[in-house]
Design brief:
Layout (H helix, E strand, L loop, with lengths): L2 H8 L9 E5 L4 E6 L14 H17 L11 H37 L4
Antiparallel strand pairs: 1-2
């Protein structure tokens, strides 16, 4: 899996080596630095391995979609494109859900610290 391609698919505005860094020490690639931010300039959660795999599969499918194997005459081309879009949406929604869970945990912690019920 190409983690850099997967991240750039999920976050097209992210800048490699500035917002994130992928490193491979011989044990396999991993995200060494993560500072990707959303439109509100909040750091988004680092994607899980599963999310990266989904995003990378979408990239691979899109690249294959440009090959002669998937011609415009292929009756499944539209279905494949729709499936790729749904997978991308699902991966992004999973990241958003993780972010909301973290925000919720922070709010609950603040409430508990202030004895607010």
């Amino acid at each position: 899996m190409n983690i850099k391609k997967a991240i750039l698919h999920m976050y097209p505005e992210a800048k490699p080596d500035q917002d994130f860094t992928v490193f491979d020490d011989g044990e396999g690639p991993y995200i060494a630095k993560w500072d990707v931010r959303d439109a509100q300039h909040q750091i988004v959660p680092k994607p899980s391995k599963e999310q990266l795999e989904i995003a990378y599969q979408i990239v691979v499918n899109a690249e294959k979609g440009n090959s002669p194997v998937d011609s415009p005459d292929d009756p499944l081309t539209g279905v494949k494109q729709q499936n790729a879009m749904l997978l991308k949406t699902l991966a992004l929604k999973e990241v958003e859900l993780q972010d909301l869970k973290k925000q919720n945990a922070g709010i609950l912690l603040t409430l508990a610290k202030n004895n607010i019920r």
